[in-house]
Design a protein that fits this description.
Mean pLDDT: 85
Radius of gyration: 15 Å
Helix content: 40-55%
Structural class: mainly alpha
Length: about 170
């Protein structure tokens, strides 16, 4: 969870449920599911690029995520043992890369609508480099880099455009 107060810490137990019940290995607190982003005051200058990038990512990755850009994520121990997360980016794209790895491993990703709050604080996220980095991440996937990473780690992967992640909540 990011430390800017945007995400509600009181819902973390709700987010843990799909993992504890064995229904998912990654859970995302989604601002987009249920329309919480705009109700919480997300600026359109952040909302529109999020929607556009997520649309593109769903096509490229073969998923059906409400968004890829939430920083409110929970991972199962099993996913962390199987995914070579140490080899992923050490930036805001880490969570999206974990979604991609989970998807390639055939592990379910649950999305639960969360309340969000946007105040007057200034984001440390620079949108242009971030967007370029997301496009590079999609290119890495199309080149097969994430599949190669998993195979090097001894994992078998799902077909290129296999079953998409399901939405919960």
């Amino acid at each position: 969870m990011h430390s800017d107060g945007q995400y509600a810490p009181e819902v973390v137990l709700d987010l843990m449920k799909p993992i504890l019940e064995g229904k998912a290995h990654i859970v995302q607190g989604s601002r987009m599911a249920g329309g919480g982003a705009l109700r919480g005051g997300m600026p359109y200058s952040r909302y529109v690029p999020n929607r556009v990038l997520t649309f593109m990512e769903n096509i490229v990755f073969g998923t059906r995520m409400a968004e890829f850009h939430s920083g409110y994520m929970l991972y199962s121990r099993i996913l962390l043992e199987r995914a070579p997360f140490e080899d992923l980016q050490n930036n805001y794209n880490f969570d999206a890369e974990m979604i991609v790895l989970a998807h390639l491993l055939g592990m379910e990703c649950a999305q639960i609508a969360i309340p969000t709050r946007y105040d007057k604080e200034v984001s440390s996220l620079d949108p242009i480099p971030y967007g370029i980095n997301v496009l590079k991440m999609m290119a890495r996937h199309l080149r097969g880099d994430y599949r190669k990473l998993l195979r090097r780690n001894g994992e078998s992967v799902q077909p290129s455009f296999g079953s998409a992640s399901k939405k919960n909540g």
